[in-house]
Amino acid sequence: MGTRAPRWPRDNLPTGNLVVVTDTSPSPAADTSTYRLWKTATRLPFGSRLFSAAVSLKAPYFRTAYPHVTELRPGRCVVRGPGWWGNRNHIGTFHVIAACNLAEMAMGMLAEATVPATHRWIPVGMNVRYPAKSTGGMTVTAEWTELPDFASMTTGQDVEVPLRFVDDAGVEPVVGSITIRVSPKKKT
């Protein structure tokens, strides 16, 4: 008998070199319907664009910033908006409200991908400052480094979603966060 072909990629590693890759991102107990839809859509050509368009149909105001969800997983969402004229203000910079639209979409998709089906959420506040100008496209990242303990939330609880705004030049023209109220769904 000859040697068998490797069955697993690790079978190709030289002896003594063990590589371990661990996903340390926070994860809820079960995938939400939004996160399952994202995983299904992104298997298709242009799937992230289709997903972004579907979200924009469900929440039409997001379309004004022409958002593109580029990454989504429990605890993290990244949304990009182009530097096109529709996102510009009268002085030619990226309009802060367009940036806020991208931020709200990033926060909303993070919440939809993370908050378990036993709970609901609603935004209750946004805090933004804009210390610098931006003339390029904008990428907004909403991220929880540690997931809230949803199981312990028996009444409404305010949870902050930190946001990071970075333009094409690497400048952070906006600083902000969105507060959401998370509460258990009413039993019917």
TrEMBL record:
InterPro entries: DUF4442, HotDog_dom_sf. This is Uncharacterized protein DUF4442. It comes from the Bacteria.
